Amino acid sequence: MDGNAPDPKYWEKMRLVAEVLKAVEGPIYIATHVDPDGDAIGSSLGLYRALKALGKEAYWVADPPRFLRFLPKEEEYSDPVEKLPVGATLVALDSAEPSRVVGVPVEGFVINIDHHGTNPRFGHIAVVDPSKAATAQMVKDLIDLLGVEWTAEIATPVLTGILTDTGNFRFANTTPEVLRVAAELLGYGVKLAELTDRLQFRPPSYFRLMGKVLSTVAFHFGGLLVTAHLPEDAGAEEDSDDFVGLIRYVEGSVVSVFLRKREEGVKVSIRSRGGVSAQNIALKLGGGGHVPAAGATLKGLDLDQAYERVLEAVAEELRRAGYL
Known about the structure:
By secondary structure, the protein is an alpha/beta fold. It has 2 domains: 10-198, inorganic pyrophosphatase (n-terminal core), CATH 3.90.1640; 205-320, Diaminopimelate Epimerase, Chain A, domain 1 (Roll), CATH 3.10.310. The chain is 36% helix and 17% strand. The chain has 10 helices and 11 strands. It has helices at residues 10-23, 38-53, 135-146, 152-165, 176-186, 192-198, 204-214, 242-247, 278-284, 303-320; strands spanning 28-31, 58-61, 89-93, 109-114, 125-128, 218-220, 225-229, 255-262, 265-272, 288-289, 293-299. The strands form 2 sheets. It has a 6-stranded mixed sheet with strand order 6-7-8-9-11-10. Strands 2-1-3-4-5 form a 5-stranded parallel sheet. A hairpin with a 4-residue loop joins strand 6 and strand 7 (225-229). The longest helix is centred in the last third of the chain and has 18 residues, at 303-320. It starts with 9 loop residues before the first helix and ends with a helix.
C-alpha cells in the first residue's frame, strides 16, 4: 500500500479501536511524539478527556510547549513512566514511528493512530490515514464511535489539533470534510475567536528571539530556498518552531528550512509548496513527515555541517520537481 494513500479499511479499524477501548478494564496510557505540536497535544488531550468521560482509568503523558499550556488542567498531567503496568494499553497518537513516542515505553497492547504517510504501522492495531489533515480529525471520528457525549472541554483540544495542522484552514489539506468537522466541533461550544487568539500568544522573549533569528535569513538557489537558524548564543528556543512558518512566506520561495542546534544534533524543520516535497527532503535527512511539512534531526553535526546536508537534500528535491 502507498504510504501516502488513504487507508481503505479506515472505518473498520477505527470501529475496532473503539470496541477495544470500551472493553478495556486496565489502565490506558495516552502519549504522543517528542516536541509535541498542536495536533499532538490536541488529539491526545481530547481523547484523554473522552476516555475519562467513559469512566476509564486513563493517563495523559505529554509535555506541551508553552503556547499550548492553557489547554490542560494541572490535574490532567501524568508523569512519564519507564515501564507500563501489566495489562496496560498504550494509545500512541500522531507519532510517525515508535522511536518518537515520548514519556512511555512502546509496550503492552499498542494502538497507533496517526496521519503521517511514513508511519510503519507499528502496534497491535494501526490506523494510519495520510488523507486526514490531522490526527485530531481521526480522534474526532474515534470519539464519535466511543459514544461519548461531546462537550466544549473535549471539543476544544480536538479543534486545536485541526486548526494548527491546517494553518487555521490556510493549508492545502483544508478539505470540505475538514471544514465540516470543524463546524461540528464549533457546535459543541468551542469559543473559536478566543481559541485562535490564545493560540497566537507568545512570551516577550519570543519577540526578542525573532530579531536574532531573522538576522540569519539566507536565500539559496535563486531564492527557491530560504533558510534561517537559531543562533547558538540566542538562549531559550521555546516555541521557535514558529519561525519556519514565518520565513515560508518569502516571495518566490518553494522551500523554507529552519535549523536549531541541540545536544543530540541539529533539528531541521521544513516547509514546501509548488510540487516540492518537504517529506522527500526530510527522508533524505533521516526524518519524515508530510509533503508540505516535515522535519529531521541530524545527529552529531554542527550547524555548518547540517546546512551542507540540507542544501544537498533540497537541491536533489528541486531537481526532481523540475526547478533546477
